[in-house]
Design a protein that fits this description.
two-stranded parallel ribbon; nine-stranded mixed β-sheet
Length: about 190
């Protein structure tokens, strides 16, 4: 291993011959390529690389059959939450699942949708009022604008809340920049996903 104090001597030795110049050039190019590859695999997060969303957005949860639902983006909440009631865990072919109902539109409470999903966990969650609740956790793809990726969602009653879905920071951290002065930047998901 060449130590930093010996580095100028090594450079002089490499540059003293034609093959040394070639070797030195090759090593410099290799270092530059390695730096570029590392940068491409882990690009720094800047406002240029993050997509902008508003404080509330239309989202879809296609595996749950939810083509459109309004979600509030909340960086103060760690986990995402979906309004659910009549939550029933069950087992099917040795796989733990949960069946639940939801009303995707708070203004049309007569529209009830039944959903089923795999259970990934059961966690104790503290809500904004400081109350602790044991919640079922599911994982399902979310669609925001043209982007789709899996997120963890806890199931809880949000009947008294304005938004039936809350997106916590783990759902958008490192992907989006939130502009709290704007709404629905990503647009509505298409009805047929």
């Amino acid at each position: 291993m060449v130590f930093l104090t010996e580095f100028p001597t090594v450079i002089q030795a490499l540059l003293s011959s034609y093959s040394g110049i070639f070797t030195f050039s090759f090593l410099c190019c290799k270092v530059i390529v390695d730096v570029i590859l590392i940068h491409c695999e882990n690009p720094p997060l800047t406002t240029d690389t993050l997509i902008c969303l508003g404080w509330r957005e239309w989202v879809a949860l296609p595996e749950l059959g939810i083509t459109r639902i309004k979600a509030k983006l909340d960086s103060g909440a760690r986990t995402s939450a979906l309004h659910a009631f009549e939550i029933t865990p069950f087992e099917q072919n040795n796989v733990r699942k949960v069946r639940f109902h939801l009303q995707p539109n708070p203004r049309k409470i007569d529209i009830i949708q039944t959903c089923e999903a795999l259970i990934v966990d059961q966690r104790e969650v503290t809500d904004s009022g400081g109350h602790r609740e044991l919640r079922w956790v599911i994982q399902t793809p979310i669609v925001i604008g043209n982007h789709s990726y899996p997120i963890d969602i806890t199931l809880t009653s949000r009947a008294s809340m304005r938004f039936r879905m809350l997106l916590g920071r783990t759902a958008f951290s490192g992907r989006y920049l939130i502009d709290v002065s704007r709404s629905y930047i990503a647009g509505k998901p298409p009805l047929a996903l």
